[in-house]
Every structure is written in C-alpha cells, then in structure tokens.
Amino acid sequence: MNIKTFLTLALLASSMTYLPTAISAEDHDDHAHEEGEKQHASHAESEGEEHKGHAEHNEEGEDHKGHDEEGEESHGGHGGHDEHGDGATSLNSKQMETAGIVVKPLQPQAVNSTIKAPGEVRFNTYKTASITPRIAAQVIDRHVVLGQLVHKGQPVVTLSSVEMAEAQGSLLVADREWKRVKTLGRKVVSARRYTEAKINWELAKAKVKAYGMSTPQIEKLLSSEDFSRANGRFALVASSDGTVLKENYILGQQADPGEELIRITDESSLWVIANVPPTIAHEISVGNQASVQFGDRAFPAKVAQINHSLDETTRTTGIRLLVENKNDALHPGLFVNTQIETSSHSKALTVPEAAVLRSADGDWEVFVEQGETGKFKGQEVELVRISNGIAIIKGIEPATRVVVEGAFFVQSELAKSGFEIHNH
C-alpha cells in the first residue's frame, strides 16, 4: 500500500469519525428545539388550564353572584313583606293602607245576652177570624177567592136557610105592627100593646141577627114591606180586615152550624213560636226584644208570651214572638231562625263579624298585631255568637290589638307563606 492510498483511507476514517459528531450536535439542537417547543407548549397548556380554571372559578363566582341576586330578587318578590318562621307576616304601611287594614285594641263592651232558637211562623189568632154559619144553611153564592184581601163588613159567601126565612117573615110582621103602634101613639093604643109591639120587634130583629144577618142586611130587608124578601137568603161578612187564607166549601153544599167555610187573617202581624230549651227559657221575659231571620232578611220582633208547658214532641218551651210582617214577606208555616235577648246584661269582647274567619283546620281565628307595627299572626278564639254584624268572642286578652278591618287580606298573605296560620 502506497502512501497516497494510506492517506486517503486515513482521511476517510477521520471524516467518518467527525460526521456522527456533527450529526449528533445537529440532532441535539433539533431535539433541544423540539423539547423547548414542547415545554413551551406544555407551559402554555398549563397556563391555559390554570387560566381556564380561573375563568371557571370566576364563572362560579358569577353564578354565585347570580344566585345571590336571584335570591334577593326572589326575596323581594313577596310584594314588600317579610315572612317569619314563627307563622307571622309583616306588611308595610302602603300595603295596609291599600288593603284597608285597621287595627284596634279590644275593650269589653256592654252587650245583651241572646239566645238562638229555631222557630215556625204561625197565624196571629188574635187577628184571625173563622167564618161559619150559625144555623144549618146551603151555600148558594161565592163573593171572594183564596188570597183575596177583604175589608170588615164585606160579604164573603151567601147562604140560604128555611130557619132564616121564617125569622125574616116574623121580623117583617113585627116591624109592620111596631110602625103602626108608633104612628098611633101612646094616647091611642094601650100601654100593653105598645110595649108588646116594641118587644116583639126587638126580638124578631135580634133573631135574624143571631142567625147571621148583618145590620145593613136587616135594614135593607125592613126598608120595604115586600114579604117576598123573606126568602131565607143572607150573606156572611168579614169580621175584620185581612186576607182569605182558607176556603172549605163548594156551591150547593149544605153547611152545618159552626162549620168553617172561610178563614181570614190580618198578616201584617204574625206569631213566631221559638223552641227554646227549658234550661235557659227562664232567662227570657215578656217584652224582650227579638229578631226573626228568614233567608237574608231580618224582622224585628218582641216576646209576647211564654208557654208554661213543654212541647210533647220537642220537649222545649215555646216562646211566642210578635213580629211585624213587612211587605207580606212571612207566611204561616215557614221555618225561621230567631235571636231572643235575655234579661241579663254583661260585658264581653266584641269585633266586627268580618274580623273573625275560619282557619285552615276549621277553627275561628282573629289576627293580632305582634310587638312591631304591621306584624300579624293568627290566634284561635271561641265565637260565642253573632248579632247584628257584631261577633262576641272569647279566648283572647283585653287590650290585644286585633285586625278589625281587612282580616281577609292578612289571612291571604299568611296562607301564601304556607305557615300554620293559627295559634293554639
């Protein structure tokens, strides 16, 4: 091997030794560059994740803020009143003014004790008349109908009787004799004849009147000497003003003495029989004021009589009330409610009827103002009675501030909160 060849091989070996070193450095630079980019990317990603985490945290903070705002909005959405965990509600002055809420302290008031009792409307028999014949007679004519208003002395039914015909004939004979004797005078006729004529005339007149003829009918009969008028016909007349309540006959019927043909009553004044337990009936006196309720109407009344025996069916004491029947609204047979004042007077706590309401469980309650103005809470009470729009209550202390107007609004606000709205 010559020197030239050896040198060539040496150069080649030297080149091969250097080349990997050069490649490694280049690779290292590339690797370092890649590592740097990876680290930079990793750092960027790390910062991005951290930044994202901060963003999410900020979003959570915004959500939390939104929740707080929503809570505040929700809390503010109750119309300006606060709800309390103690079952009370607070109203601001504007709400109270708008709802017309009035609060007053309770003070004992003098009241008349009353007794409530069911009752029935009856005829006022003191103003009721039964039209009956006094002798056997036949019905031949009708002059009034059921429900018709009649006046005292008005003919209601015409009858015919043989007995009346005989009495009418006797009266006409006696009347003629009496007129002749009077014309002749005491100087011409004897005292005995004069007296007998007068007595016979008086007796004959009294007989037809007792049989049922009225004074105007008798005068009409005697106004003529026509004996054909003695036909036995006569009319029964109304003994007082009133309304025809009953007809119990037909034309052609033979009526017996005392048989009721027509009933007339003055309905401007009626009776109501209230059934009161005997244990409390002694608290009622004649003359006490009372009230009769029928539907949505009330009629003033007065205690007229108190029965001294119990009703055999109801075992109650009958209290007879005299009631003025305005506009003919009441009629016998109606069932009504009554309130009768007793003779005792006492003091009690009272509120307007509208201030006492039913709670969710059916108890009666009022709404009392708590320590601060506008804060209300329901309180259960005992409703003793209601009279003329005033409720008498028990179970609450005097001087308690109670809602006397606008109670329904307060109850509605409490119901919205879902609280138990009465306090045992």
UniProtKB/TrEMBL annotation:
Domain CusB-like beta-barrel: 270-343
Residues in CzcB-like barrel-sandwich hybrid domain copies: 127-266
Pfam families referenced in this protein's UniProt entry, alphabetically: Beta-barrel_RND_2 (PF25954), BSH_CzcB (PF25973)
One of the record's GO molecular function terms: transmembrane transporter activity
Biased composition (Basic and acidic residues): 27-86
Keywords, in A-Z order: Transport
Region of interest called Disordered, as start-end residue ranges on this chain: 27-91
GO biological process: copper ion export; plasma membrane copper ion transport
Gene Ontology cellular component annotations, sorted alphabetically: membrane; outer membrane-bounded periplasmic space
Transport is among the record's keywords: yes
InterPro entries noted in UniProt: Beta-barrel_RND_2, BSH_CzcB-like, MFP_Cation_Efflux, RND_pump_MFP
Family: Belongs to the membrane fusion protein (MFP) (TC 8.A.1) family.
UniProt cross-references to NCBIfam families, sorted A to Z: RND_mfp
Name assigned to this protein: Probable Co/Zn/Cd efflux system membrane fusion protein
Organism encoding this protein: hydrothermal vent metagenome
Organism ancestry: unclassified sequences, metagenomes, ecological metagenomes
